[in-house]
Design a protein that fits this description.
2 copies of one chain form a homodimer. Helix content of chain A is about 45%, strand content about 15%. By secondary structure, chain A is of the alpha/beta class. Chain A folds into 2 domains: about 1-115 and about 280-325, Isopropylmalate Dehydrogenase (3-Layer(aba) Sandwich), CATH 3.40.718.10; about 115-275, 3-Layer(aba) Sandwich (Isopropylmalate Dehydrogenase). In chain A, strands 3-2-1-4-11-10-5-6-9-7-8 form an 11-stranded mixed β-sheet, with helices on both faces. In chain A, a hairpin with a 4-residue loop joins β10 (about 280) and β11. Chains A and B meet through α6, α7 and α8 of A and α6, α7 and α8 of B.
Amino acid sequence: MKIAIDAMGGDNGSKPVIEAVKEFLNKYPGNELVVFGKEEELQELNGLCRIVNAPDVVPMEAGALEVLRMKNSSMCKAISTMKEEGFDAVISAGSTGGFLSAATLILKTIPGVKRSALVTAFPTKIKGKKVVVLDVGANNENNAEELLQFGYMGKAYDQALFSVKEPKVYLLSNGAEAHKGSPLVKEAHKMYLEDKFVGFQGNMEARDVLNGDCDVIVCDGFSGNVLLKGMEGIAKMMSGMIKANFKKNLWTKLGYLHVRKGFKDMSETMDYKSVGGAMLLGINGVVVKAHGNSDAYSFFSALKVAKQMVDFEVVKNLKESFKNE
Amino acid sequence: MKIAIDAMGGDNGSKPVIEAVKEFLNKYPGNELVVFGKEEELQELNGLCRIVNAPDVVPMEAGALEVLRMKNSSMCKAISTMKEEGFDAVISAGSTGGFLSAATLILKTIPGVKRSALVTAFPTKIKGKKVVVLDVGANNENNAEELLQFGYMGKAYDQALFSVKEPKVYLLSNGAEAHKGSPLVKEAHKMYLEDKFVGFQGNMEARDVLNGDCDVIVCDGFSGNVLLKGMEGIAKMMSGMIKANFKKNLWTKLGYLHVRKGFKDMSETMDYKSVGGAMLLGINGVVVKAHGNSDAYSFFSALKVAKQMVDFEVVKNLKESFKNE
């Protein structure tokens, strides 16, 4: 397995990437990681893996064209080298828009796939169980046919990453009943039925997404983005309130000692870092976007996501699924 | 002020409504409440306010046509009597879909208003400060012109309910930058600028909605529903985790004693019941939908919302705003 790694784009620079790479090589020997970035910053990896000097750093707000113009950027070199040398995967913690669109332009979508989708996983009420959500923002709008394809893509991802044999797939809607939803959802619902999509369970309201019943929730990129970021926003607000409650005074700090374990478990459950970022599905190759503020643990999780996608041949399987489209 | 009250539709029957009515008459004497429902259940209100016998109860899942057909239902009678006798407001805790569409059909939208919108308020990071969100689900889809009108409606609501003089209005989008968003948001953004909408601040991502900077967030009914219910879902999940953490054993219960105050404040802040449900804006008359599972406090809050909307002549002001449309 060969993975191209952009070591520079994240908020925290190359340090967490170096840590994650070392950890990964240690845990999964026999895989080849190729790291792109400022050579002098990557000395620690000398002898452990191939280092490609690509000193320019793509700014956080960069778009695809800017990435493509920056030929010596770690991001652009990582993607284009992946393409030229036939690597299996590419990872970056840099500009989401820039990375995803540049990867799409360089690597191209799988034949038959109308649109790629950004997929990630949320924690649920059921310990250890995740729900797969797509598209969370690769697209500004989608049509019904694309929503049907997202169902197949999400299913393949869920099977590979969480070993769910027969994922239950729902459409995100404003009511659970089959006749409810936006015109787009209504049309997509009909297409799922006509397609006899195995595992399709109907519509689901946003409030039930985390109840543990749903394996894959399909939505257009705009709604998915609202869902993801809305949940992120309120979770952050509540976590802040919890911390403030415990930090108020000596007495409350004492209280924390009594419940420390439970709240640590809770913050681990809610921790998006364990999910390892998001993957762009539907592309010729595994494209993983690590969180912009990744620490070593988070970047390592992203590497693991890439590995599992390659191990389970998700790209090959999707090519198979969509070859007759 | 005359308010029509459907006493029957909620999950908890007429009991919390009776409590809320008594409390309201006590706190705000001189207002006339007319209560619709099973006469024998409402005896406690005899002498306090007018009671109209309307024994049929609209089922939770009823649509507008079902409501209109059930002439002797408390919901249908409350709305039609409001219209016939010229009341100021109507309130129900019954079927959302049925109530909102029946109210729209009977009372009609304000001339010039393209679509009514369901509006509610969320808590924010800043203590006591609420953010107004609309549409949270009256519509399955909206066009840009409707989103512009929602801005005016939300502004009027914010000014009346929270006394914000010059509300900051944002469009919900998948990026804060002006050029980001669905085609709908992009078009609406342009219309806000062309309209020189006073207080328009641009786009806002879902994750920032609760940061306290935004007074009114405008979205189409589908996205708004996803935002509202997604946040509700994760807030409920986290609250459940918090409670479970404290209830584990004697030791954790002891811990709770140390931080009780902070967590009570927190659950009050997050408590949707204090917001008093949602209002349907853009209708000829004040139409308030109390929470289906309202207790007396929650229904009382809904009555207060209705009172403030009438006091501040929101309907009259909106009529003024839209008369040249």
